[in-house]
């Protein structure tokens, strides 16, 4: 070890030097005092987040009283997301700044509390709400996977899952808007749900939220690796959003576009329909089975998926416009309804090469989806995948 000499009294100078080194050492660390009461004389694993993966810090012994202590280095202005695991179970989560001294009490099931750090308390609440949401959402999606797709119970379960997802998204949006300068907003933006890891903030317009939080955090934590990674993701999403806007402004779409007058005497252009997924359905109101298809299949599907981003653009190829309008009003069809009195000779029928009715097309992300829709089941499968 390199030695140092100081002018003046050797004993006093040496003591002061040791004290300064000790103070600097403590100041550059964060301390965790943990309690795991229901698993004494065991061990826990400490991990920290390295952008998109866990990095193991150490394995720590828990004494017979359920206590353990750990200290880790934390760079100034670069807080760390730190987690405590027992086996494969995460039992505590913290956001530690340099100099923090946090007391964490947890059990082996993943329930925990923290004291001594305001940011860690916020993060604990974020983790708790996320766990509650994923437990509810997973339960609904698991139940849905074993139900007959066209059953009333399946329809109700889909509606409940959609409502849970939308409610959680709104709650988390409110959270990040209320905490733009807290690093706890970062993991919220990356949360996913369900077996398919559906992003909570997965809409293309969520690029705005990524950008706003990134800009706010950069004023407080300019050197944080988490903020730098968020800035990169915000840029990627902003590019996608910009591309979508430019494509919309250019009027270029990956499907035949048209404009028809709807039941309310308003012109509606297909490319201007604001929806994640559009079901373009051609039919004739003079056919009894096609009228029943509206009530038995399309209406339940619309009720289940409209809130998730589905819109239906239904085109009747009917010469008798008055009869068509009467059917639409009698059935109370809530989506976009239009009629072309040229029937099978209509321009829109030629655009889509229609030779028989009914026929459906699904449009998503500006293009026709290469899927054959034959009935309600096949349509629901496609919509479940897209929405």
TrEMBL record:
InterPro entries: AhpC/TSA, DUF4369, Thioredoxin-like_sf, Thioredoxin_domain, Thioredoxin_ResA/DsbE_sf. The keyword Signal applies. Residues 249-387 form the Thioredoxin domain. Residues 1-24 form the signal peptide. It holds the Pfam family AhpC-TSA. GO terms for molecular function: antioxidant activity; oxidoreductase activity. It comes from the Bacteria. Keywords: Signal. This is AhpC/TSA family protein.
